[in-house]
Amino acid sequence: MSPGRDDAGARDIAVTGLGLLTPAGNGVAENWARVLEAEPAAATDPALAGLLVDFSCRAADFDPVAHFGRRRAWRLDRYVQLALIAAAEAVHDSGLDPAGWDGARVGVVLGNALGGTATFEQQVRTLDRQGAAAVSPMLVPMSAVNMVSGYAAMEFGALGPNLVTATACASAATAIGTARDLLRSGTCDVVITGGTEASLTPAVLSGFARMGALSRRCDDPAAASRPFDTGRDGFVAAEGAGGAGP
Questions:
Q1: Sign of the C-alpha dihedral, residues 188, 190, 194, 197?
Q2: How far is Cα 149 from Cα 165, in angstroms, rounded to an integer?
Q3: Which single residue of 85, 122, 188, 243 could bond 19 by disulfide (Cβ 3.0 to 4.6 Å)?
Q4: What is the mean pLDDT of residues 217-227?
Q5: What are the chain's domains?
């Protein structure tokens, strides 16, 4: 997102680029095409086998090693991986070159509710099975909710305000509003914003299921998401990231 001014001198805000990595596709064009075709993304999820709900919406055609290389992919939780790919598309789509901007005037505000739950759950299992000495030293930096904006700042040379908003399902909306405020106040000239979530893990999904929040239509996942139907019985869990800016 970046600012301009209207005839009265007020600071207008413009979204100059978009990026998406969701169950509907990798990239804005692929997402839009699949939405227009009304293709369902929910499917039985082997990682959730035996749980109360065994289906979800995983990000489409996503290979972290292909994007980041094996070593870097191992050091980034999935929620960060998704965010960096979406943010990179948004920056590219904007037509702005990070090499040419004043990093001190560039901020990052991203929304995320749960942090690196995949890393955290995996390391809890490691602790239980192998003991404390086997726990990864990367547990904290990979699972902390604030790390995603830090990694994005390093990726794009953004040295200005760096924030993560965690307001449950409104996290990304809160981030976008905060980015707008940074631009309107004159604190930043450019802000990379959006949201990311990748918490399709056994403990998290079991918690949502026990709350009665998830659809139980395990026999027909493609028809489970029906938010405006009188026969709805919950939402379908998904992962993904969206970027706006810069």
A1: negative
A2: 10
A3: 243
A4: 92
A5: 17-114+146-226+235-245 (3.40.47.10)
